[in-house]
Specification:
The complex is a heterodimer of chains A (about 900) and B (about 160). Chain A folds into five domains: about 15-115, Ubiquitin-like (UB roll); about 125-140 and about 155-300, Alpha-Beta Plaits; about 310-385 and about 555-690, 3-Layer(aba) Sandwich (Rossmann fold), CATH 3.40.50; about 390-545, Dimethylsulfoxide Reductase, domain 2, CATH 3.40.228; about 765-875, Barwin-like endoglucanases. Chain A contains 26 helices and 35 strands. In chain A, about 55% of the residues are buried. Chain B is an alpha+beta fold and about 160 residues long. Chain B folds into two domains: about 10-70, Arc Repressor Mutant, subunit A (Orthogonal Bundle), CATH 1.10.10.1590; about 80-160, 3-Layer(aba) Sandwich (Glutaredoxin). Chain B contains seven helices and four strands. The chains are: A alpha/beta (about 900), B alpha+beta (about 160). The interface between A and B is medium-sized, with 25 and 21 residues.
Chain lengths: ~900, ~160
């Protein structure tokens, strides 16, 4: 077979090149550089500026190697190149002999180390990078132990640029990794190299912040101590900390992380550390980038309001009690309500940040023990219909970005601030492979916009209609072009080009839909439209719905929501407040109070809790939701328990306990097991959470090959290997997609075609054009109000000040530009916001990220006209500078 | 932060800038000429103007600042009405450039810093300006004056109204 002759590092069709590295014959593909081939073959070439996820800069000169080439004018005898060459930029050629450890190469490395250390201060004892510094390591391995430098070293003033990132320019070696990261991956040139020659330095314009949700990654990218983490500054030395591989509970992209702890306290969170040269470290060639919320916000369990003892109500007081006593109270409390009012008077609410095991046990408790369908996790949707539509979307999800796509259609949404790492990988996919992104809808992702080939704006509520027409157009109906052009307010030729592009995709295509947009208001129309669109495009097309809730897909998979056929017979999360008020629900068990906090009508829900006969909650904190409980169960936080999470692509990741349990807190699976057992079930005999995992997987994905243990290290997930989809990975030799992918699981793609009727597709009524204002759209923002983030130690640095996105066309009309202040009137209330002019919202539409600065959008049941005015005041302009992360 | 939301340094130059941008295959190529436009108008390039230029050209302020800080001929601090650039490289230094600088500072009233108290003059020491034959030499704006003597300096300063 032809495929067998292809080297494992190559894909069929790649041009093969043979070369020799240090005497060993190796194979690479045309266009590869020496350093990548050497890395794959385990020949380590020292480097600073080269990074596998970034473009080649070639300015540190440390990767100099000796090269001998066959000379065609001398009978192809090997002849040395007159000068050493840098391995990061020199492409491999046939018959090339590379020497990475010859006398010349060693002299070059030693010489370059001496140059790099000319101005580097000898302040390792007070440098936070100490212990994981590439400069320290290379000095030991490749440098000389003494210095010949007699002159004073260059010194810079220290800027206070970013509240999260500490810049110490004296230590900088000008590798420009941070500059290239901001430029290429984070998508904006906010960091730069300033001044010239030996005086140059890195920084931001006007000492401003690196205001990007991915900015924290420059800390790991920096090979020296120039960029370090401010919250972690002087807190601990890295070698004193215990590393635990785990996963983010913020980012539904499935980011993997390493938690660094000591004495039960979390010091920092980074992308997964990997073993390099015998040491687990994070800053070298880490291709996995995480968002700032995951990085800086994960320490919320050590908040002073933590209640780590269970409590039960005695009279009016909630007093500490033993865990077993609290569990017994919950079991008897639930049983009493069920006996008096029937099983359907009980409801269980599961936090979308619960693990799959917890969701599985909660639904098992509800269905098998109590005998009710009243279980739900879908708290953040505006309406019950939206939640149903989301369930339909999840049922049809089947895409994985890792497979690579020839075209991606992105529907309404702010993906960067909903699923940051996923948005980043999607953008990298487009940037590195050149495959087109098409954005359709009333709100485009501004982060993806520069890499989107086609951008079609339409009015809010018209997306479903547009997709229906596009489905017809792809099917060969040319009559829809003019109507589509009208919806998109564009020329027919562009619509035709789009249809040609979609039809021309022979391999894989992807349709991406955010379930976040307008808190799901339009989903009942848009989800069927999108699914019908995917069906019309053909078999190679996949579909991914995204939601900010970390374990939404996992909880859907284990069935932690009412079954589709139980409609009318069950109470879902959105109907809960009504059901409590009219007395249908008498007893409530909440697993994670964030489930209540993230409800759009949380004030009403909170007020209604008093009417319950029995209310038990498992949570971490002393808060409005836990103080009024009949029983408070102290839960283990994400740092203290084990569990499984599923991301938007249907891949599993393990949450792992760092240093065990704290105080009297217990993981929720233990509580549920206890409650069910006391209520009389003998089906809850689990010894460990792994037992729950095994039973759960045998139900939802019998073909799954991975194990609970393997999930911890399976991956990588959010790395940059996307530039070579399906290709060889250089740094994870034990990589096996079957360890975490759930392709075969039966909770994924049902295969049933979805049809959409004209009524569902019909554009929703929106206020007439010509009114004096804008149409408001909104969506959840990861940097907004969040139950867990509110308890993080540096929450004020992570939460963003309120802003609105505005189309450039409208900005010109208003005379506004990015950074200006404005006032937004919603429902008679006036809010002060910052304006951000970008390609995101359609003309006439403003996009307001929900939850920022306490702006509440609860009560909005449709897009509506709002008034936006630009404030032209010096005082305001000066006050509005603070905006971070 | 801009002093006002409405006023820009280049509000009257938009047509000129568009014409410039049209000359190049990409807009960012027009960065240098637009920065010169700012410097010719204001005598220096303030940070607000860098932001504004970035917005017009379509690059970030950081990129504009990279360019401005790279080329030392862009002034990053305010200059006087007349900017005096005195050469102090070898030939001029031998022929008395430092004495000339001291003399100019005294006569122009530049007591500290680089701007005269009345804001009329600012002074900068330049590397070789290619006028070694007429050393010591200085530039007033873009006009070259060679063979500086106390008398000729007096005359030059007096002609700068």
């Amino acid at each position: 077979m032809a495929d067998q002759s292809v080297h494992p590092a190559l894909k069929p069709g790649d041009e093969e090149i043979k070369l020799v590295i240090n005497g060993k014959e190796v194979v690479g593909k045309k266009g590869e550089t020496i350093i990548s081939v050497a890395a794959r073959e385990d020949y380590y070439i020292p480097h600073y500026c080269w990074h596998p996820a970034l473009s080649v800069a070639g300015n540190c000169r440390l990767c100099l190697v000796e090269i001998h080439l066959p000379n065609p004018r001398n009978d192809n005898k090997l002849a040395p190149l007159p000068k050493p060459a840098i391995a990061c930029q020199t492409p491999i050629t046939e018959g090339m002999h590379v020497f990475t450890d010859s006398q010349l190469a060693k002299e070059c490395q030693e010489g370059m180390m001496e140059f790099l250390l000319v101005n580097h201060p000898l302040d390792c004892p007070i440098c936070d990078r100490g212990g994981e510094c590439m400069l320290q390591r290379y000095s030991m391995e490749y440098g000389t132990p003494h210095t010949r430098m007699r002159d004073p070293k260059r010194k810079y003033l220290k800027p206070e640029a970013d509240p999260l990132i500490d810049i110490e320019r004296n230590r900088c070696i000008m590798c420009t990794r941070c500059v290239r990261f901001c430029d290429e991956v984070a998508g904006e040139h906010v960091m730069g190299v300033f001044a010239r020659g030996s005086d140059n330095y890195i920084g931001t314009f006007g000492q401003g912040p690196v205001a990007n949700i991915l900015s924290g990654n420059v800390i790991d990218l920096c090979p020296v101590g120039c960029l370090t983490s401010k919250p972690f500054r002087f807190k601990a030395r890295v070698w004193e900390l215990l590393q635990t591989q785990s996963t983010s509970i913020w980012d539904a992209s499935g980011s993997k992380v390493t938690h660094w702890t000591r004495n039960g306290r979390l010091y920092r969170t980074t992308p997964p550390s990997r073993k390099y040269h015998g040491v687990y470290t994070v800053n070298e060639d880490t291709e996995e980038f995480i968002d700032n919320i995951t990085r800086f916000g994960s320490d919320f369990p050590s908040h002073e309001n933590r209640w780590d003892e269970s409590r039960v109500k005695f009279g009016e007081n909630l007093l500490p009690a033993a865990f077993t006593e609290a569990v017994r109270r919950v079991a008897t409390g639930l049983k009493k309500v069920a006996d008096e009012h029937g099983p359907d008077s009980l409801a269980i609410l599961v936090s979308p940040r619960s693990s799959m095991e917890e969701g599985y046990l909660a639904q098992k408790l509800a269905r098998d023990v109590i005998g009710t369908e009243n279980i739900d996790w879908r708290v953040s949707f505006q309406t019950a219909e939206a939640a149903e539509a989301a369930a339909q979307a999840f049922q049809h999800a089947n895409g994985d970005l890792e497979d690579g796509f020839d075209a991606v259609v992105v529907l309404n949404g702010d993906y960067l601030h909903s699923v940051p790492a996923f948005a980043m990988r999607l953008k990298e996919h487009a940037r590195l492979t050149g495959k087109p992104i098409v954005q359709i809808g009333h709100h485009h992702d501004a982060f993806l916009a520069p890499h989107s080939k086609y951008k079609f704006h339409c009015a809010p509520g018209s997306t479903a209609k547009a997709l229906q027409l596009l489905s017809k157009g792809v099917g060969g109906d040319t009559s829809v072009v003019s109507e589509l052009a009208k919806i998109f307010s564009t020329e027919s030729s562009r619509v035709e080009a789009l249809i040609t592009l979609l039809k021309g995709v022979e391999g894989r295509g992807l349709v991406l839909q955010s379930l976040e947009d307008l808190n799901g208001l339009l989903l009942p129309n848009e989800v069927p439209a999108a699914l019908a669109f995917v069906g019309a495009l053909g078999g190679g097309w996949k579909y991914i719905p995204t939601l900010r809730d970390r374990n939404a897909f996992g909880l859907h998979a284990v069935g932690a929501q009412p079954k589709a056929d139980a409609e009318g017979k069950s109470v879902n999360a959105r109907q809960l407040a009504d059901a409590i008020e009219d007395g249908t629900i008498k007893g409530l068990l909440v697993l994670g109070a964030d489930a209540l906090h993230h409800s759009p009508d949380r004030e009403r829900l909170l007020a209604s809790l008093g009417k319950l006969d029995f209310y038990a909650v498992s949570d971490l904190f002393d808060s409005d939701y836990t103080r009024i409980a009949d029983v408070y169960l102290a839960a283990a936080s994400h740092l203290e328990k084990d569990g499984t999470f599923c991301d938007v692509e249907g891949n599993l990741a393990r949450l792992a306990s760092t240093e065990g349990l704290v105080g009297g807190a217990r993981p929720e699976w233990e509580m549920l097991t206890g409650i069910a057992t006391i209520m009389g079930s003998d089906n809850f005999a689990y010894e460990t959470v792994e037992d729950v995992f095994k039973e759960m997987m045998s139900v939802i994905a019998p073909d799954f090959k991975g194990t609970f243990k393997k999930l911890l290290l399976a991956g990588p997930r959010n790395d940059n290997s996307i530039k070579d989809p399906g290709g060889a990975r250089t740094h994870t030799k034990d990589y096996n997609p079957g360890d975490y992918r759930t392709d075969g699981a039966h909770f994924r793609w049902t295969g049933e075609p979805v049809a959409i009727d004209d009524q569902t597709a019909a554009p929703r009524s929106v206020p007439e054009s010509g009114f004096d204002g804008f149409l408001l759209t909104w969506g959840e923002h990861v940097q907004g109000d969040d139950y867990h983030l509110n308890h993080a130690s540096i929450v004020e640095l992570l939460q963003k000040a309120p802003y609105v996105e505005l189309n450039p066309v409208d900005a010109v009309k208003l005379g506004a530009e990015t950074g200006d202040r404005g006032t937004l009137d919603i429902n008679g209330e006036s809010y002060e916001v910052e304006l951000k002019v970008c390609e995101g919202p359609a003309p006439g539409v403003v996009y307001l990220p929900a939850g920022l600065g306490g702006i509440k959008l609860s009560g909005l049941t449709d897009t509506q006209a709002v008034k936006l005015e630009v404030v032209k005041s010096n005082a305001l302009a000066e006050a509005g500078a603070g905006n971070t992360a | 932060m801009r002093e006002s939301n409405a006023v820009g340094y280049l509000d009257d130059k938009h047509e000129e800038i568009e014409a410039l941008c049209a000359k190049y295959p990409s807009r960012r190529s027009a960065l240098l000429p637009v920065l010169w436009m700012v410097q010719n108008k204001l005598g220096w390039v303030p940070q607000d103007a860098m932001k504004e230029v970035g917005d017009i050209i379509g690059v970030t302020a950081a990129e504009v600042y990279e360019v401005v800080s790279f080329y030392t001929m862009f002034q990053q601090k305010p200059t006087g009405k007349y900017h005096l650039g005195v050469c102090h490289t070898l030939a001029c230094a031998i022929c008395g450039a430092f004495e000339a600088i001291d003399y100019i500072k005294e006569k122009a009233g530049i007591n500290h810093g680089r701007i005269s108290d009345d804001g009329r003059f600012s002074i900068e020491e330049l590397e070789c300006i290619g006028a070694c034959a007429e050393a010591p030499a200085m530039l007033v704006g873009e006009t070259l004056h060679g063979n500086l003597t106390p008398a000729s300096i007096d005359k030059i300063l007096a002609s700068c109204k």
